């Protein structure tokens, strides 16, 4: 058996104070090589602060951090060169067309072909001929995404990557994330809602008021998730046939229709239903967001920044 590769990002007891305000209270994080990791939390929770420490854009107050085996505080330049980073807010005021700015940034990273830049811009619907300065928030976000992905970095750190993108472009972006993972590279992305990362993330952590309050494997979360199922058959069915099935509860049989709640795999229910002629099978998507938060927090207190404690 080969040993697992070392984590790509680690923080231990990471703290950050802004003057007398403490923004991070001893953060422990571990992001594994090759995974897509969602970093979730409401506004003001400390996501950008954490990310900016990882890239040495601000300095930590205490604790440790490692990115690609490097300490950002000692090797900030190397970390920034190796990581594809999308800032929460891209502040470029260049009069130059996006094409030139991206070519320049590509040169700083060892050279990126115009074809590669053009391909990413096409996918995101970015007009490369327009000056960056006058671009809308959404178009600036696209420039930010192109520069983060274009040199195929081993690690992408993306701060709220989907903000300002319409739903179709969000899907395109998620496809780019999947391709990155398929290449064996790692993506760490923040969001304030689970829904934006749940289809693509392997794991996710929730940060609230400067503390990690949950870390979850997304497959395990899906397995625990309940869904409401309704099946309509060609003829009335016997209620007894649908009681006591594995993972199935709250069964209600009314003539030709069975309604129930399934926790986890619906295998037993599907096999039992297959004994009859099924006309309709409706299964509501489980609400992972609710499950994620209620599991740890009883669904309360979902937002708000903190004062120092
Ligand atoms: N430069 C600063 N000076 C003082 N306080 C700051 C500074 N930057 C952030 N904070 C505070 O630190 C806390 C964490 O902010 P941070 O920006 O990291 O949160 P976030 O989770 O990224 O939220 P958002 O999505 O709103 O950016 C907040 O209470 C914020 O007010």
From TrEMBL:
It is a peripheral membrane protein. It is found in: Cell membrane. Keywords: Antibiotic resistance, ATP-binding, Nucleotide-binding, Transport. GO terms for cellular component: plasma membrane. Signal peptide: none annotated. Residues 9-234 form the ABC transporter domain. The keyword tRNA processing does not apply. It comes from the Bacteria. This is ABC-2 type transport system ATP-binding protein.
């Amino acid at each position: 058996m080969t040993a697992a590769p070392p984590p790509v990002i680690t923080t231990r007891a990471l703290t950050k104070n802004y003057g007398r305000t403490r923004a991070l209270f001893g953060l422990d994080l571990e992001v594994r090589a090759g995974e897509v990791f969602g970093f979730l939390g409401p506004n003001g929770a400390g996501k950008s602060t954490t990310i900016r420490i990882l890239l040495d854009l601000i300095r930590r107050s205490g604790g440790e951090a490692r990115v690609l085996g490097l300490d950002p505080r000692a090797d900030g330049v190397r970390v920034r060169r190796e990581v594809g980073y999308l800032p929460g807010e891209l502040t470029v005021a260049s009069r130059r067309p996006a094409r030139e700015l991206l070519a320049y940034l590509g040169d700083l990273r060892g050279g990126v072909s115009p074809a590669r830049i053009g391909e990413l811009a096409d996918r995101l619907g970015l007009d490369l001929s327009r000056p960056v300065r006058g671009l809308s928030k959404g178009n600036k976000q696209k420039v930010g995404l192109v520069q983060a992905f274009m040199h195929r970095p081993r690690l992408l750190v993306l701060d709220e990557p989907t903000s300002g993108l319409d739903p179709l472009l969000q899907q395109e972006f998620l496809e780019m994330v999947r391709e990155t993972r398929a290449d064996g590279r790692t993506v760490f992305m923040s969001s304030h809602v689970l829904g934006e990362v749940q289809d693509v993330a392997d794991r996710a952590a929730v940060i609230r008021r400067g503390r990690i309050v949950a870390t979850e494997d997304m497959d395990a979360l899906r397995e625990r998730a309940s869904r409401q199922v309704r099946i309509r058959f060609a003829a009335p069915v016997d209620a007894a046939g649908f009681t006591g099935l594995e993972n199935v509860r709250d069964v209600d049989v009314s003539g030709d229709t069975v309604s129930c709640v399934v926790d986890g795999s619906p295998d037993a229910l599907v096999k039992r239903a297959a004994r009859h002629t099924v006309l309709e099978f409706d299964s509501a998507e489980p609400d992972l967001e609710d499950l994620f938060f209620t599991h740890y927090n009883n669904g309360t207190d979902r937002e708000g920044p903190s004062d120092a404690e």
